[in-house]
């Protein structure tokens, strides 16, 4: 039986839809999971009932995270924010983390994980990180390779890819700054931007800064990330059943 994977959503500009890109759904399903979108419910902070339904939780890309969550005022380059989404995702993360549920974060998702673990972010790498190369190309297809990523050996990410250097797409202007508690950086772009993090504990807690869900159909190597996540969710499901 497929493990149930919760996928976080975002509010449309008119707040009429709680939605998400189909690429996340397709990638989870192709990797063997059963994707379920989790709607944003305004003024709700208790998502325990949703978490109890799931075997794994995927945090998706999107809005900038409000800087007051890591004790900063906004820089002028900060883009769209949504306090409703921030509160929704931090609430989901707290319950899932406490249950030791497998968690995978993509783009905004890696940033959400880091801030939830008391880390901080560069609000805008182009103005705050001298020497930064390109990370957010315009008029470029989402399944195109854009820049190289160096992966550390002896990490979960290296076990997944089996390579020290890969090429990825890239669509972000924020990134991990100070690492959160019990997290390590496992990959970097060649200008020093953190491209992946994982937990120092014995659990599946992994975040990547690029968008692998956009790459899985044209570049199947990126499906390895989703398969590893789904496999961890299967193991979690089996433990929960045996308890």
Structure report:
The structure is a single chain. This protein is α/β, with parallel strands linked by helices. It has one domain (4-242): 3-Layer(aba) Sandwich (Rossmann fold). Helices cover 29% and strands 21% of the residues. The chain has helices spanning 22-30, 48-53, 83-98, 108-116, 125-128, 156-161, 223-242; strands spanning 4-8, 10-11, 18-19, 34-38, 56-59, 103-106, 121-122, 147-151, 165-168, 175-176, 183-189, 194-199, 205-208. The strands form three sheets. The chain has a nine-stranded mixed beta sheet, sandwiched between helices. It has a two-stranded antiparallel sheet with strand order 2-3. Strand 2 (10-11) and strand 3 form a beta hairpin. The longest helix is centred in the last third of the chain and has 20 residues, at 223-242. It is globular and about 50 Å long. The relative contact order is 0.18. The model has no long low-confidence stretch (mean pLDDT 94).
């Amino acid at each position: 039986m497929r493990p149930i994977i919760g996928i976080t959503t975002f509010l449309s500009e008119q707040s009429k839809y709680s939605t998400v890109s189909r690429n996340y759904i397709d990638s989870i399903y192709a990797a063997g999971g059963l994707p379920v979108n989790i709607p944003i419910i305004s003024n709700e902070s208790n998502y325990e009932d949703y978490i109890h339904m799931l075997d794994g939780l995927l945090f998706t890309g999107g809005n900038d995270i409000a800087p007051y969550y890591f004790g900063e005022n906004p820089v002028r380059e900060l883009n769209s924010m949504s306090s409703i989404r921030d509160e929704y995702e931090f609430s989901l993360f707290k319950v899932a983390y406490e249950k030791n549920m497998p968690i995978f974060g993509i783009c905004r998702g890696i940033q959400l994980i880091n801030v939830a673990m008391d880390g901080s972010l560069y609000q805008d790498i182009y103005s705050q990180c001298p020497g930064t190369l390109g990370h957010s190309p315009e008029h470029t297809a989402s399944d195109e390779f854009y820049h190289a990523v160096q992966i550390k050996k002896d990490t979960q990410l290296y076990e997944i890819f089996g390579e020290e250097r890969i090429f990825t797409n890239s669509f972000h202007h924020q990134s991990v700054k100070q690492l959160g508690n019990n997290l390590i950086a496992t990959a970097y772009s060649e200008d020093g931007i953190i491209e992946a993090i994982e937990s120092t504990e014995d659990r599946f807690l992994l975040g990547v800064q690029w968008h692998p869900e956009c790459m899985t159909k044209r570049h199947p190597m990126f499906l390895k990330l989703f398969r590893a996540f789904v496999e961890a969710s299967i193991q979690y499901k089996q433990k929960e059943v045996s308890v």
